[in-house]
């Protein structure tokens, strides 16, 4: 009886630890998403306010603040598809929030938080900037040689993609469980 009671206590403690861990992981997701989103929005407001008539060289011509408005996707592709890109972004936000319910890994929390911030940051521009809702142009202002002008949201999306690829190579699912060879064995 005592052994059974001890096993139950251990199982309850484990469930409590899992619940606490999941709470911390979800909090990480929310904090990362919110902080990165706010940083993106704030830097775009500052760029529009201060870069209207001039570029600012931060590291010579290697790193320049240069204001542009992008109607398309990455590399200014699909400029005639702004509405479609906006609708895909809405679907992406919904999908990230859907998958975030299963978070069981801190790395995945960072990845999905950054992805949500990046997609939502650029979607905010498409919703609220001219020329019209769902057709707005994204504010880009970071320029390096031989690369299209980009913004904080784009950085978030790319870092998220890297983390997602890393987790896939490590065989760790969104739920934090290891999948792959070890699971088969």
UniProtKB/TrEMBL annotation:
InterPro entries: Peptidase_A8. Pfam families: Peptidase_A8 (PF01252). It is a multi-pass membrane protein. The chain crosses the membrane at residues 27-47, 81-100, 107-128, 148-169. The active site is at 140, 154. This protein specifically catalyzes the removal of signal peptides from prolipoproteins. Belongs to the peptidase A8 family. This is Lipoprotein signal peptidase. It comes from Nocardioides taihuensis. The gene is lspA.
